[in-house]
Structure formats: structure tokens, C-alpha cells
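Purpose: get a first structural picture of the assembly so the mutagenesis plan has something to point at.
Setup: two entries, given in the order below. No constraints added.
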Amino acid sequence: MDARVELEQLRKTFVQTVRRGLRRERREIVAVDGVSLAVPAGQSVAFIGPNGAGKSTTIKMLTGILLPTSGSARVLGLTPWRDRPALARHIGAVFGQRSQLWYHLPPRDTFEVLARVYDLERAVYARARDTLIERFGLGPFLDVPVRKLSLGQRMRAEIAASLLHAPKVLFLDEPTIGLDVVARQELRDLIREWNREEGMTVFLTSHDAGDIEGVARRVVVINHGRVVLDDKVSAMRRKYLGSKVLSVRFHAPPAAIDLPGAVAVKATEYALKLEVDTRVTPIERVVTAVLRAGPVADIAIEDPPLEEVIAHIYSRGDAPDTGEDDAES
Amino acid sequence: MSAVAKYTWIGLTAARSNLAYAGEAAARTIFLGVILFVFLQLWKVTYAETGAERLGGLTLVEMLWYLAMTECMTLSTPRVAWEVDQDVRSGALAVQLIRPLSYPLYRLSVTLGERAVRFAMSAVVAAVVALTLVGPVPVSARGLACFAAALPLAFVLDFLAYFLIGLGAFWFEDTTGLTLIYSRVTMILGGMLLPIELFPDALRHVARALPFALVMYGPAHLFVRPDAQFASALVAKQAVAVAAFAVAIGLVHRAAMHRLFSNGG
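Result (C-alpha cells, whole complex):
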């Protein structure tokens, strides 16, 4: 496996000083506690966890701006904290809450600066810039000062700017924060397309379940500094909640449905919404019971929202599940 | 591309970006006009009361042009320490570190680009005001060349001092106090309000020995009284001060980065 990012028992502790009256106590805070994973070239990984779980600390170590307490990491074959200047030329980063664009100048000017920062040859730069303008639809606002752009336009320009030097690994930290539904979807599509077509490895952190589903194929959940889940996004729901949501509309008021593991979360005279724990009662039995309960006009079986799955994973114990059997590369 | 070309481009971009602040620049120039008018009235009275043609070696015309230059330098000072402080506290510094750039050189380029625009705009207004109020000061090509050599070094030195204060954010809760002290000391001991020839003897010797005069008094004095010997001594002292501050920044920046890499800031 050609791993672009490899972590082996990576650990980071901080010393926190707490004042107790006149005394000062020092205590050790474990931010990252022996994280190991390998991300192959071209894979898109969502690296998620609750606030304070250790995501940012891990990313800081992977970008070379934080030294680990122990363990090792290799990004593109380089040790980030030792080879930061060399690594900087091959990685890109987008921080949703920190802009790299010059606020009073058009995006084109930031591109010109970045071409020089990354020492790009003019022909290489011009080709990359033109491709990004076309693919990200930057043409209409390329010469408009950034301060006059909508947040959606700004983020498109932001991500395009981070791709100008053709990074092999892109770190995205909350890239869609603050965007409206349409702009979020557009941005996710662009990142996903770029990842698939250019073979760039994507390392995404986000609290938005839509980002995870829209961009990543693999999800790594970190909590209390440890990996608690490493699996395909598609497998996460199935394994971790084992529930389905059944929405039914009837032509006439239905009879009562009484099945273990099937809870009516919403009921009107002609409609019913059931949350079914499929580990208790298989979905086929519930569907059969629904069809017997009354004349069905419409029926839909859905997975529970990803937010619910994530919340469930955060709230359970720390026992890791690496899902190695079916993790895709 | 050479590092010089890279950072020069960043400086030029910062200069263009600063042209967007037309409103702020206009407000500064209005203030400049008012303050020069007030100074003129004060110095007219002072010259009349003392009956002297020259004070501290300067005529009334030279005195107003001297003040015009020091005011332009003061009003063009970017908020370097505040920006560095914010970069440290907000974590924006980390974003800069994952690019193939030197953070101190990046900040220096941005500051010089910004300051060049602000100084040029202020200088145009100051020249119009001074010409209107007292007429021209004799300038020569040699004098302007000396001034042009000393002014960038003064700006670099000023940047280094503010940058050093900004790095204090790694250790102190707030660096605004240090910034305020430095700016006020530069105004007083640097000769913004009074040329240091007018200081009492003891204070004059102290002011001449300190780097503050190299930031403001030196270039402004050179503008109104061009002198090759004064210019070469000034540039030499500025070069030594820049080297000393650069070494200090190198050490402090290294300690700050060690702190950042070990503790995350």
C-alpha cells in the first residue's frame, strides 16, 4: 500500500498549570493517545470527533507545526516536524475560519502571490490557474475584491488557491462552516471531483455530517485522543446504530402496530413514522406488520441521520473498531 | 525565483492592498494638516519670543518641514506588534508556517509595502501643507539620495522593534502596554515633537546613544539639513542597530517557535 499519511502510536501530552490558592499544580493533559493509521494515496478521509478530542492536535503534528511527545508520523515519506519546509511544498490546507486570500484584492492577486511563494514556473502556474478557474467557476469573480464576494464564492476561491501548487495531500478543516445549503453542496462536489480525478489525498475534519458523506469514503472517529472507529462511511450507519426509520402514509386509519423494537416517533390519523431497532426485529417483519395494519399509500425506509450515528459513537465507550475487513483504499 | 523576488512581490501586493484604505488615508491626512498648522503657530511664537533665527540649528521653515517628516513617519506606522500578537493568539501563525515562507520576512515585506504607501500619501499632503504655510525647504538631489538611503533603514528598524514586541504574545497576556511604551518613547526620545538638539545636554547625549533617534530624528534631520557626513554616520548606526535587532529577533523567534512546536502556542 502506497501510504501518503502514516501515524504510528502518535502521542501528544501538554502540561497544564492550575492555580489552587497560592499553590500551582502541574497536570498532564493527554491530547492524542497513541493514534495509528495509514491513509493511502488518493483516499479521502474524514477525521472527526467532538471538541477537544485531539483532531486539531493530530493535524498540527501532521503538518509539522507541533512536536509529538512520542510515536512517529510520515507524510509523503517525510517526518513533518523535521522536514516542515520541504513538506510545505507538497501539502495544502484550508481552514474554514482563516482566510489566505488578500481581503482587499481580487482572488487573482492571491494566486499571483502564491505562485511566487511556491516558486511555480510561469507556464505551470498559468495552466494550473486556468484549470482551477474553469473547474471552480471562478471566472465571474476572479477580478472582484475578496471583501465583495459571498462566503460561497470566497470559499471556492480559498480552496482553488490551496490547490494551485498541486498538493499531494490536502488538509481541510471545517471547509463549509457558515455556508448555505447550496454553497456547501457545490463545494463538497468540487472537492470530491478533484480528489477522484487528480488522485489527491484528502484529510477532512468537520462537524458537518453532510461534509463527511459528501467528501469522504473513509471515516476515522477520534475521542479522548484515541481512534474509536475507522471504517467506510457507508458501513458506519449500518454497524453503529442498527436502526431504520420507516415512514408510512395510509389510505385509511391503520390498526395499532405492536412490535418489540419498533417505536412510533410520530403518528397522525393517516401517517406513521417508526424508528426500528433492526437488531430486535428485522425490517421485513415490521414492513409485513405495516402492510397488514391498513391500506398503504406510500412507504419509505431510511437510514437514521448521520448526526445521530456520530452522536451515538461519541457517547459510547472507547473500544476501537478499525473495520479493517472492509476498509477500502 | 529568488527569495528577494518572492518577498518583493509580497511587499508590492501589500502596497496595492493598502490603497484600498482610501477613507482611512484621507482621515490621516486631514489630521496631518491640522497638526502642522498647530505646530506652525506654536513655533512662530517660540521663534518670535526668543528672537532667534535658528533654534537647534533649524530655521522656522526647516522646523516645519522637519515636523512634517516626523509626523508622516509616525502616521505611517503600521500596527505590526498588534498583527503579530493576533497571529499568535488566533493561531493564524500556524497557517503561515505550513507554507514555504519565513514568517518574519513575510511580515517585514507586508509592513514595508504598507508603510511605503501610507508614507507616500502622507508626504504628498504634508508637502502641500508645508508649502502653503511656510514655502519650500531647499532640497538637493544629494540630500534626497541621503534621505532615501536612511528612510528604508529607519522603517526596517522600527519594524524589528515592533515585531519583537509582538513576539512577546508567546509569553505575556497582553503586549499593548509594551507597544504603547515603545511608540511614546520613540515620539519623545526619537525627536518627533522636538529635534534632539533642543533637548537638555544630558538628555541629548542619551537620546543620541539610543536607537529611537535612528528611527525618526535621523532621517527627518537629513531631509531638512542634508549632510553627507551625518548621512553616512546615520546609515552606519542604523545598519548596526538593524543587525543587533535582527539577532535579537532570531533568538526570540527561535524560542517562540520552540514553544509553539512543543506546546502549540
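The interface with chain A takes residues 1, 5-6, 9-10, 13, 16-18, 20-21, 90-92, 94-95, 97-101, 260-264 of chain B (CB under 8 Å).
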